[in-house]
Amino acid sequence: MRYLYAIILIFFFLTNSYAQEENLHGEKFEFETSNEKDPSFVLLDNYNHYLLTNINVDGVMAGHQIIIRKFDQKNNLVGNFKADFPTMDANSLYEYLGFAESQNGKLATFVEVHSGRANKSEIYKIEFDKVTSKFTTILLATNPIISLMKSGSISLEKSENGRFIAINFQKYRNKGLAEKNQIIVINSSTLEVVWQKELSFEDEYTSQNFTVTNSGKVILVRDMKGSKKGITYLVSISDSSQENKTFESPVFLNEMKSISIGPEEYLVAFNSASKNFIEDFYNSLMLYDLKSGKILNNTKITSFASVKGLRKVTIRNVVLQNNEINILAEAKANVMMGSTTGYGAAPISTSLDKMIVGPSFMFKINFEGELKEARDLRVNSIAETEIFPSFGFINAKGAYYIAKGKSGDIYSLNNLNEIDKDIYKARTKGVDPYGNGSGKYLNQLITYFPDKNTILQGRIVNNNEMSLLSFKIK
């Protein structure tokens, strides 16, 4: 009888512990909603997870920092680590470029700093080691600049498989001189530079944007400067080669990603034949074969034509499944909020607008580039800052879901009209200490743990407080 009683107690303890662990609401922690940018879950394992953000604010409330928060299995904050951006002098300006995760528990963020007084630009890698909780700052490159107004431009791109990071620093080009681009390619698994080189172009074209392939090549887009007729060519660059690829008809590649189908590499690109109106920049969707240098298909689309105040389209996710390519894209737009009129003899009327993120769409094409479906993701265009993209995306055991809206509800990509009922029941199980699912969800802050079969989300519960929530799904 004594053994039976012990077995019952153990069974009760195990089942009660399992029930308690199904929904874990972490304690609130301070979060600067107006200043912290680009929040991302990083360095995930079955014991801890981390939240990465950055602050890059000039002026009276100036601050330039990398912030990494550590959480335990119950989503409670157990560590808060900060590193200042490297600086040159009091007049330095900064640009946060992005991040990469290694396979050995390290995270690297990339920052550019430039100074008109020092007349130079510097690119840094700031490494964080989760074993030691220490930061290490490493200088990657130094370039001369003419002034703050003539300091060039810089951008970072990740390969679709996440294995490579590419940085392109385009130096300021004086009239009549060659354009120079410094390219740095980094292996994400080691966070080490695998190749870098400076390219010089004597022609009258200008480098517009670029992507990095799954094999670590950089594809640079070059347009005829000042032309609105789509005169473009590509430059495919590796550590040992450089090859130009031309188009048979006028085209502007305005947003693109490199993908792989088997061993071959391709581009998916929103494009246009001219640049007369921004609404037309994204009116076609192309599949381009990088090996043959041929357009496999270029289909007209109308999804973004009706977006008022359109400013930019970003490809957020690309998924290859069942011999089809699923492209999830998000629009940014200026929305008019009203106007204000000055006083006096000559009153001035000024428009008031704000930047929103959304609408968003999923485009499905086959491996020949034929458009099979253009689906409205039906997001709520509530996002007013960079920390609130219109949707989040996860792959849970081969099933694809998006989180959208202020409440962060989760939908299957197969049915965007109804909340996934099983996930909704799992997420709302138990007592929510912050109001039964209330708060404003950061939709991109969603991830899936396959070993535990749980989903993790982040939300703002007060103006400057955040909480994490995880729950087990079927």
Which runs of at least 5 residues are low in confidence (pLDDT < 50)?
6-20, 342-352
Strand content: over 45%
Q: How would you sum up the global shape?
A: globular
| Terminal-residue CA separation | 36 Å
Count of runs of 4 or more consecutive helical residues? 2
Taking the sheet with the most strands, its summary is: 5 strands, antiparallel
Helix content: under 10%
Secondary structure: number of strands: 32
Mean pLDDT: 86
Radius of gyration from the alpha-carbon trace, in angstroms: 24 Å
Structural class: mainly beta
Describe this structure in words.
The two termini are 36 Å apart. The protein is built from 2 helices and 32 strands. It has a domain at 1-30 and 377-474. The protein is globular, with a radius of gyration of 24 Å. The protein is mainly β and 474 residues long. The strands form 8 sheets. Strands 1, 2, 30, 31 and 32 form a 5-stranded antiparallel sheet that branches. The chain has a 4-stranded antiparallel sheet with strand order 3-4-5-6, with no helix packed on it. Helix content is 6%, strand content 56%. Strand 27 (391-396) and strand 28 form a beta hairpin. It has helices spanning 2-22, 421-427; strands at residues 23-25, 29-30, 36-42, 49-57, 63-71, 77-84, 93-101, 106-115, 120-129, 134-144, 153-158, 164-170, 179-187, 192-201, 205-212, 218-224, 232-237, 242-246, 252-261, 264-272, 284-289, 294-300, 310-321, 324-341, 349-366, 371-376, 391-396, 399-404, 409-412, 440-449, 454-462, 465-472.
